[in-house]
Amino acid sequence: MSRKACVVGAGPNGLAAAIVLAQAGVQVEVFEAESTIGGGARTLELTLPGFLHDFGSAVHPMGAGSPFFSSLPLHDYGLEWIHSPAPLAHPLDDGTAVVLEKDLHAADAGLGVDGRAWRSLMQPFAERWKEFAPEVLRPMPALPTHPLLMARFGLHALPSAQSLASRFRSERTRSLFAGLAAHSFLGLDEPLSGAFGMLMAIPAHAVGWPVAQGGSQGISNALCGYLAKLGGKVKVSSRIERMSDLPQADVVLFDVTPKQLVAIAGECLSSGYKQSLAKHRYGPGVFKVDYALIAPIPWKAADCLRSATIHLGGTFEEIASAERAVRNGQISDRPFVLLAQPSLFDSSRAPEGKHTAWAYCHVPNRSKVDMLERMENQIERFAPGFRKCVLARRVFSPADLESMDANLIGGDISGGVIDLKQFLFRPTWRHYATSDPRIYICSSSTPPGGSVHGMCGFHAANMALSRLGRS
Ligand SMILES: Cc1cc2nc3c(=O)[nH]c(=O)nc-3n(C[C@H](O)[C@H](O)[C@H](O)COP(=O)(O)OP(=O)(O)OC[C@H]3O[C@@H](n4cnc5c(N)ncnc54)[C@H](O)[C@@H]3O)c2cc1C
Which of 227, 261, 341, 452 to mutate to test the pocket of ligand 1 (most atoms within 8 A of CB)? Predict the structure, then answer.
């Protein structure tokens, strides 16, 4: 008899889970609350007609480097990665920019006195990405498949970003590393912040930091197209509020965070498990702005035009201080701003001659503070005249983001803090399993956490399949 599964949520992890189940011959139905599939990987006309903006994810090192996505024929379903000449640029106050080149030899040359140190740190993992990625993009196993490689990573990566950066002699390289590590939402003096810095830099060399042609919707549409080919079905505008909203199924996978799981399926879960879920901690939120621009951003450093991603925050100490403030529940007057300028490399994003930009900064969870002026001051600092290029802007507070994707609790884009505890037990020691053997959680609140890679959905669905096989 054929087995049936429901998946709640058509984000990258929900779609990945549905594909794994459908590949195994399970009949899958996905229920998505919003009118468009994709969750954090959607592209919408958020400002003016003809300007396509990524609602959530914009740049995809983990998407391009995902072992699961790489195993799928997503190209046949329209997914095209576009690489800017350099993955990342980090402008400084002297009017120059530190550029992270994809090629490790070019990076070595470009980083001057720190070139060798950078290369010796990143190369062992970048050149073995195919072995390294499956190890880091899963729950931390007791016995890794590549123990020496992982032991080496652990030695380098457990310390804080501050401690790792101390091996660089130039302030420029330290600044570059701070921007990479700040993706963690951790203080740069906290353990694991160094690992994040490395986990952003390594795929920059191994696979690049591409944008998806036409926007991140292209990733979701390709996943959905392949799922349809396997016989899976997706229903949009179908918010699931209780278990009785779902048809009968052998297993249900939830691409939602712990808080939502309890609200929807609480009656099926043991009180002990619900207590564990209640301890799950959400992280800081983000404040985001999308721009329609009349011209490319007028960067002081011309090198910034070579990269789709720009980190705006100045020196290591400045970025560390901005992130420390957020960790302490405060806002920073000089926030660290992550900016993407995809239309420079993908003309489909804006009408001819016009451009888009996507930018966000970290703020405390549920913050109501308007960060627009502070963010634009940071952009103007490195691109004087930026404001004059703005045709239209769309601002998203943490609450605005959550209203468009219920998983973005208080503006948290990672499904919960990734500190040491929530790295190991995410969201509980059971990872994807719950106290009900029919119910699984597969969102970024499970290992390996945030980013568009589908690996949470992949592992959750494999666990569900092994249980289905046994039942
Ligand atoms: C502003 C922003 C910037 C980001 N930048 C990047 C980036 O550059 N690169 C990157 O890799 N990642 C980035 N991310 C993170 C990335 O988008 C997420 O990590 C990823 O989308 C998580 O996938 P998911 O499937 O776990 O959850 P989501 O993508 O959030 O999907 C969850 C889905 O479940 C649906 N849902 C929730 N509740 C219900 C319900 N009750 N019933 C039915 N459906 C429901 C939601 O509507 C949503 O579609 C960013 C995110 C944001 C918001």
Answer: 452
Residue 412 Cα to ligand 1 middle (Å): 10
Q: Tell me, using a 6 A CB cutoff, whether residue 9 lines ligand 1.
A: yes
pLDDT in tens, 287-321: 999 999 999 999 999 999 999 999 999 999 999 99
Instruction: Indicate whether residue 378 lines ligand 1 (CB < 6 A).
Output: no
Q: What is the pTM of this model?
A: 0.96
The three-state DSSP-derived secondary structure of the chain is CCCEEEEECCCHHHHHHHHHHHHCCCEEEEECCCCCCCCCCCEECCCCCCCCEECCCCCCHHHHCCHHHHCCCHHHHCCCEECCCEEEEEECCCCCEEEECCCHHHHHHHCHHHHHHHHHHHHHHHCCHHHHHHHHCCCCCCCCCCHHHHHHHHHHHCCCHHHHHCCCCCHHHHHHHHHHHHHHCCCCCCCCHHHHHHHHHHHHHHCCCCEECCCCHHHHHHHHHHHHHCCCEEECCCCCCCHHHCCCCCEEEECCCHHHHHHHHHHHCCHHHHHHHHCCCCCCEEEEEEEEECCCCCCCCHHHHHEEEEEECCCHHHHHHHHHHHHCCCCCCCCCEEEECHHHCCHHHCCCCCEEEEEEEEECCCCCCCCHHHHHHHHHHHCCCHHHHEEEEEEECHHHHHHHCCCCHHHCCCCCCCCHHHHHCCCCCCCCECCCCCEEECCCCCCCCCCCCCHHHHHHHHHHHHHHHHC
Tens-place pLDDT, residues 374-401: 999 999 999 999 999 999 999 999 999 9
